[in-house]
Structure formats: C-alpha cells, structure tokens
Design brief:
single chain; 676 residues; pyruvate-formate lyase- activating enzyme; 2 domains; ten-stranded mixed β-sheet; 30% helix
Amino acid sequence: MPSAPNDLFSRRPYWAKRLLPAPVLPMSRTEMEQLGWDACDVILVTGDAFVDHPSFGAAVVGRLLEAHGFRVGIIAQPDWDSAEPFTALGRPTLFFGITAGNMDSMVNRYTADRLPRRDDAYTPDGAGGRRPDRCTIVYAQRIREAFRDVPLVLGGIEASLRRSAHFDGWSETVRRSILFDARADLLVFGNAERAIVEIAHRVAQREPSKSIRDLRGTAYACRKLPEELAVIDASNPDATIVSLKDREHSALRLPSHKQVKEDKRAYAHASRLLHLESNPHNARALVQNHGTAELVINPPPWPLTTEELDRVYELPYTRRPHPTYGDARIPAYEMIRTSVSLMRGCFGGCTFCSITEHEGRIIQSRSTDSVLREIEAIRDQVPGFTGIISDLGGPTANMYRLNCSSPDIQAKCRRLSCVYPDICPTLDTDHAPLIDLYQRARALPGIKKILIASGVRYDLAAQSPEYVKELATHHVGGYLKIAPEHSEEGPLSKMMKPTLRAYDRFKTLFDRYSKAAGKEQYLIPYFIAAHPGTSDEDMLNLALWLKAHGFRLDQVQTFLPTPLALATAMYHSGYNPLKRLNRPEKVSTPKKLTQRRLHKAFLRYHDSANWPLLREALKRMGRSDLIGNGKRHLVPAWQPGQGRRAPGPAARVTPGKRRPPSAARQPKRGGRRAPR
C-alpha cells in the first residue's frame, strides 16, 4: 500500500507569515499597499466574483496558502479583451493560479440545449456575460501575454474535468487536455489542498515548476517520460492489461488523443480506464500521447483527514463577498450564506455527475465540534441571521462519516460505486453520527431551525429508519429533494442509480414519520430527460408514473454531456464504458434536438404547450389510447384556444393547506452548491 501523506499543515511557513493574515485578501494595488505588501507571492485568477467563504474554491486555496505564509492576491472576473486587467496586482513572486470558479464556464454559460444563459449566480447582481467560454484557457493566454515566463497552475472543476483528452459537448469534438491549450506548467485536479501547498513551497525554494513531477493530484506535459515510470500499454481495448505489483511506480498508457478522436470505441475504453484508476489506495498514473508531447496524470490526491479538513474550514474567512462589491447581491452566496459543509466526496458514482470525478469516492468528514463552531460563527457574525441554518450537507446530505468498514478491502477495491447495483456489504451505513450532529446543532442557543437542503441519498437513508425519523420530524421545511432520476431499468442501469423500490421504501418511512410529527410534507423528486440508454418508451413510462403519483414537475433537467463523465462517454461513443470494450455493449442516446425536446415534454406532460408534440409522438408509438379526457389518459384531445374545453377531472387544492406536489413549483436543481 502506498505510504500515507504528511500532515497538510506540517510545512514550515514561508517568510511572509509575519505580514499575515490579511483581513481581506487584496484585489487591488491599494489594498496591497495598505497591508504593507510590495508584491503577491501567488495570484489567483477566478471566473467567479470573490467570496471569502469556504464554499468557494478560490477562498479555500487563498486562505490555505496564507496559512502557510504566502501573500495571496485575487483577480476576480477580469475583462479578458486585453492583458491589462491581469496586471492589476503586478507580477507574483511564485505563480499564477487559474480557476474557472465553482462551475465549469461552459455549463455556467449555456443550457443543455446550448442556448446562452442570461444570468450567472456567481456574479454580482446575477449579471450574465462576465466570463468567456472556456475561461481557464482564455485567462491563461492573457497572463502569458502579460507575463511570459511566470509559472501557471490550473485548478478548479473546469481544469479537473479536462485533464485528459475529452469530448466537448458544445463543439461536438474531442479536445486535447486543457494543459496544452492553456500552455500551463501544472494542472491540479480533485481536492487541491495538498498539491497546491507543495507547489507553493517548492517553487518558493526555487525549484522550477516544470520539474515538479511527483505530486499526486497533478498532471503535466513532457517530451520524454520519466525513466522511473514503468509504462504498461493499455491502449488496445481488445488486449489484456498486464498488472505490476509496484503500482505506485507504474502507469497505464491510454489511447492517444489521435486515437480517441478518430475511434469512438477507443474513447470509451480510455474513459473506463481513467475511472477505474480513481481509488488513491491503488490507482496508477496515466499516460496519454498528444502528438509530440506526453500527458502524465499522476494518481489521485490523498483524502484529507478529519483534523486537516477541520483546519481548512476554520481558516479566517470573512464569510462575505469582497467589500468592493458593495451592496450588490451575489445569488450563489445568498444560497449558502447560512449553510455548512459537513463533508466532501461521493461514493455514488452516478455516471452523469461530476462530483465523484472531482472530489473522489472516499468521504472526507469534518468533526462534529468543528461543524458546531461554524454554526455558532454564523449565528454571531452573519448580518441578518434569523436563527435558521439553511443546510447541513455537502455533495449529498447523508454520507457523513460513511466509509468502507474494511481498510484492506478499500485498499484493493476498484468498484465504480459503493451503492450500485446494491449497497456494498462492507460499506458502513450507520447514520448515528449524523443524527447526533443534527440533534446537537438544533440544541445550540439561538438556533431555531436546522434545514437539510442537500439532496438525500434515499437508498442509504432507508437503511436507517432513525435517520428518516429525525429528518422528517425536525429538518424538513415542507419539501425534501431527492433524485430517483428515472423509473425504468434501461436508463437507470446506465446512470448507476437504484430502482424505484428504494424510493418506495424511503417514501413509506418519510410519510410515516411526517404524519407522526403532525406535518404535511412532500418529496420533490428530480428526473433526467434524454439520458444515454433512454428510449421514447422509457420516457412515456416515466410520464405515466408521474401522473399516477400526482407529480407535475416545473423545472426539469435534460442530460448535459459534461467532460470526463462516464455518461458523456456513452453519449459520444455509443458504447457502455461500465463494461469491458473487447466485447462492447452499444448504447443509444437521444441526440437530435427534436427527440430531446420530446423527452423533456414527457416530464412536463401537464403543460398544454407540450400536448401537440406528445399527441403526435403517442400516435407514432401506437399509444393513441393515452389521448383523451379521462383520468387514464396522459394528454387531452383538446387544445387551449382551439375550441371549448372538454370536461375532465379538475385539480383541487384544499383551502388552508399546503399545495400538493402535483401543483408545487420545484426548487432549482443543484443542491446547496456546485463542487469546487
């Protein structure tokens, strides 16, 4: 087993420690002068407005480097029309760090149908258009114009998900690693703390950034591979991969950029290999040729310990937007202003999601005492606090302290999910620590209510009726978000999601305990349209399930092929990377805009604007029996504005009671925050 890492805070601080900490990380020369700085050691350029809060990646990296004695400046959402805005803080003594922000810039700027979004939750007053497409690349190019020889380090989710050759759904092409387009020295992927601290200290010791090649959680480009790296050629989907005992010093050669660009089966094979090498306990480095250069992706970073995570989250954040924004409202900050992150990571492995690829499958949890201290800080420091904590969660609401119960098995495990097709018998599903945390949190003086806004993993929750009771009795504000995603086995198997039997078990418990508490509460389910492996019949069956259960969804999600995701590999290649590619399983995907719109229309079967499209589809599918004005029909035969309305069942809402989910507007998808 590879050796464990050194403590995140074990390094001797840099000399500038005596000038720190800064009350506010500077965003101008004037602020630097007020702090007595002649230069910044590290300048972080971010596509988000700067919010000094631990839910924002730039703040975490900035405050962590500051704790190590480095002077950190921030350039937030610079005008990219010229290089001048990137010179606002001068030349850093060590390096520039570049991040697109908490969201991928393309996901932030475009809808699933590739239409431009008008707003941006990470920008003052929600204004759109404050960052360019693929902003990591654009920022890097502008910095190179201003400071040709200053080291560039890429990080954040945009860089993390583009660390290898990847399918770009917006251009419908396979692009090379973002390292080459940005001409950066290093790319940091996943949880960046260990790598970024080591890079800063080693560059400060005058080690050239281009010679830093041994850090986990980093990728780099080179002309010649390191001699100590034993490379195993795994580029052929039909060949058997030879395994070496010394996994720490071996690497797998992925199909080259040229191969994955020209051969879709090779693309699916490369995606499968990358995801199989994601357990830091046994992952090997990956090598991918990009023409005249080689890309090397080192093994994933070691997870942070509870003690390290506590210190990261308790650094001296102001927990507010930078003062330069004045009274401007930043929607993403408003959403998490009174929320607390309990953990990182997700072992669900949902193929359409980026959380596992970015934060890892091993859950990293904070201590209960650290969480309680943050709640008290919110109570005492956040202006206008009303006594309500809006969320205690993370990527999921209820994976806190859930991990493999067998270190030996975990060290060897290569499963893509701990909960699919069934919950692994070695997974610890004990929710007692989380229940205790909820109870202690709501008992704090000045705390009126603790809400859970992060999505609940209901198959895990159903393993603990005590947790569901605590949740339903004390922590739901009427509606609770969960994500079945679909009703049919075909798409669920490609998503790696449980069947609706798990949903039914959880709903039975939730309804029982809500009723026992004297509360009228509802589950708000999320579903995905047009996911790989989904047929028109699957969406029809889902629409019938929704109608039978009284759901009228308002906001729905259409599948978006984001880089690195396994579902994206299915979408692009037409093959299933969940299985070996020597005997490939084909996967059909709704790609045409007309079919994607139809699948979305099935989710909103109740919207009269969708009825003409649905009627046409039902006739084509031989299901005209579902067109009519009775309860058993999916859509009516009449159309508003085209004659007298035929009689049918009317929706009723009991006066004085909460509107049922069939008429309720769903909250926006996405939970409490986007992953860093």
